[in-house]
Every structure is written in structure tokens, then in C-alpha cells.
Structures
1.
Amino acid sequence: MLALSNVYALKLLLLMLSAPVWIPFVKELWREFNLAMREDGGLFGPIPHPRKAKEIREQIAKEPSPQIHIPKGHLKLRQRNAPAATQRPTSGPQLGQRGPRRMGR
């Protein structure tokens, strides 16, 4: 019985000591979920009045998209400038020792 309470106390101690790592993460998740659900009143809030919901939708429309797209054109450039031998092997274990097969042959 005593050993079981020691294990429980160690678990609580570990949870408390690791709090500086997980509490900011949980707070940010809570803020993000409430922000995403604000049109419906948040996670546990009441559904907003239609006039307030319209204001929220207008506010959402003005905000920039949170999704980020970074084109990686340098990867295509590297493939275009690579020598032909490194682009497509003419023989090997995947292609058989005869080379690439053509359609209909």
C-alpha cells in the first residue's frame, strides 16, 4: 500500500515539474480552438446573436489566411539542371538489366 502511494506521488511530482513545458502548449491549443470556433460561440460559449455572428464572419473575412504556402521552386530547378544520367537510370535492379520498358512491347 505504501509503495502504491509513492508511485502516485512520483507521478504527481513529474506532472508538476513538467508543467512549464505543457501548460503553454495547452493554453495555446485552447486559444486556437476558441478562435476557430468563434462563429459558433467558442468551445463552451453560447451561440452568438445573428447580428454578432455577421460581425464575426466579416472579421474572419478580413483576416489573412493562417495557412502558409512556400513554393519550393529551387527543387524543380535542381532536377532540371541535373545530368540526364542521374535523372533516369537506364538499367538496374528495379528496371531489370534490359533497361526501361516501353509501352506495348
2.
Amino acid sequence: MRERGISAATLLEVIDTGDTRYRDETHLWAFKSFPDRDDNLLCAVLVLEDRLIVKTVMHHFAVL
């Protein structure tokens, strides 16, 4: 996250207030645009089990 310039607070904002798309009952993407960033959407790939697992964080993400 440091390499991509994404703070823990920004990641929590993506997860808490971003748009979501579910792949199935336990796998989803949370994504949000930040106007002050120049790399399009930020996206967190998440797994819902007994806890929330962040598998990866992406930038330059595009919703298809």
C-alpha cells in the first residue's frame, strides 16, 4: 500500500463507503474514486469469512 500511496484510512474508506460488486456470497470488490488521485478508481478485493480479509488493493482499476 505504501508503494501505491494508499493509507489505511483510505483503504477503510473504500471498504466502508465504496461501491461493491459480489462475485459470489463470500468474494467481492469494493471500489471508490478519489478526485485528488490521478490513478482512477481504488479497489479492494475482499473475502468474507469469519472476518473480512483484504486479498489485494488495486489502483488504475476499471469497472466493466
